[in-house]
Amino acid sequence: MKIETAKHSGFCFGVKRAIQIATETAQNNKKTVTLGPIIHNPQMVEFLMKKGLHSVDDIKDITDETVIIRSHGITAENYKLLVERGLNFVDATCPFVKKAQEYAQKLTDDGYQLYILGEKDHPEVEALLSYIDDSAVVITNPDVDFKKPTQRKVALIAQTTQSEEKFEGLAKKLIHFSEELYVVKTICNATILRQETTRNLSQKVDIMIVIGGKNSANTTRLAEIARAEGCKTFHIETEGELKDVWFKDVDNVGISAGASTPNWIINSVKEKIKKINETK
Ligand code: SF4
Questions:
Q1: Centre of ligand 1 from the C-alpha of residue 254, in Å
Q2: What is the CA 183 to chain-centroid distance, rounded?
Q3: Given 124, 126, 237, 239, which residue is catalytic?
Q4: Position in ligand 1 atom list of the atom nearest CA 189
Q5: Residue 44 and residue 54: Cα distance in Å, rounded?
Q6: Is domain 13-93 in CATH 2.60.120.620, yes or no?
Q7: How far is the CA of 9 from the centre of ligand 1 (A)?
Q8: Counting CB atoms within 10 angstroms of each CB, which of 8, 78, 80, 158 has the fewest?
Q9: Predicted local distance difference test score (pLDDT) of residue 28
Q10: What pLDDT was estimated at residue 92?
Q11: Residue 275 pLDDT class (50, 70, 90 cuts)
């Protein structure tokens, strides 16, 4: 059985950077917390917790700890609270997320009705929305929840981990209903490469194993992409979820992993698949 891993898999630049900032801060300052889980990978969050880096969901629960702002960014309200309370904080927001926030602000200031392709409840989108007025429209799937713009000038951006295909679909729909359409592709390159290599790999293997948090939007999207190619796909968090029966009569296995999946999990999944193969 051949096992191939998608060329672009696992930790992206923004996640590596956030973890490095958080661990270095925690080394120098024992009382360090992250505001919300630093990344959407429960195993990595647990690993960091064992090293003393805890996550806190509500600023009210923070007393004198140094606060790490995670790669998804922070809402304007929470930012204000951090400043007002005089808390010490370190900003690990991914620069690509920051860029999307800046575009959101600039485009709404310039009078565009802003469309965001994304998930309303995702912390990155919650943060984006908090910096602009409430005329912005969030669309998760242009084929399902599209709403016509109510203004003449329309702008479109995306949550950084969205699919290019859906983004193009939404742009095409908006072009019909606007006089002026300003499109900024804020999907990051790490996302594009992970999606592309997952799509290509899933076209040539019998099954795909996509590794990453079940709460990770970008990993879930990779699994959706592989399924859309007609490839039997399993989304798992750890090797413990692998089942021997999945590999019966399988010659080629593809592996892909979201931007928040650490290498040690990818490697243990590979090792377990090799062991399953040996006992076939
Ligand atoms: S997926 Fe992209 S935007 Fe998100 S943290 Fe990684 S590099 Fe940054």
A1: 23
A2: 21
A3: 124
A4: 2
A5: 12
A6: no
A7: 13
A8: 80
A9: 86
A10: 96
A11: very high
The residue with tokens 């959407």 is: 40
| Ligand 1 within 6 A of CB of 71 | yes
Q: What is the DSSP string of 83-152?
A: HHTT--EEE---HHHHHHHHHHHHHHHTTPEEEEES-TTSHHHHHHHHTS-TT-EEES-TTTS----SSS
Atom of ligand 1 nearest to the CA of 218: 1
What does the domain layout of the chain look like in residue ranges?
Answer: 2-10+190-278, 13-93, 96-187
Listed in sequence order, the residues at least 6 apart from 144 whose beta carbon sits closer than 8 Å to its beta carbon are none
* Pocket flag, ligand 1, residue 193 (CB < 6 Å): no
Pick the closest to residue 254 from 47, 41, 2 (CA basis): 2
- Verify whether ligand 1 is closer than 6 Å to residue 115 (CB atom): no
Give the three-class secondary structure for 198: helix
Cβ–ligand 1 contact at 259 (below 6 Å): yes
Q: Among residues of the chain, what percentage have pLDDT more than 70?
A: 100
pLDDT in tens, 80-138: 999 999 999 999 999 999 999 999 999 999 999 999 999 999 999 999 999 998 889 99
CATH domain 2-10+190-278 topology: Cobalt-precorrin-4 Transmethylase; domain 1 (3.40.1010)
| Fold type of domain 96-187 | Cobalt-precorrin-4 Transmethylase; domain 1 (3.40.1010)
Ligand 1: residue of 12, 198, 260 to mutate (most ligand atoms within 8 A of CB) is 12
- 243: burial class by Cβ within 10 Å (0-12, 13-18, 19+)? exposed
Task: Please state the pTM of the whole predicted model.
Answer: 0.91
Based on the residue annotation, tell me whether 124 is a catalytic residue of this protein. Answer: yes
Predicted local confidence at residue 52, as pLDDT: 86
Task: Establish whether domains 13-93 and 96-187 are of one fold.
Answer: no
Asked whether 150 and 126 are in contact (CB, 8 A), the reply is no
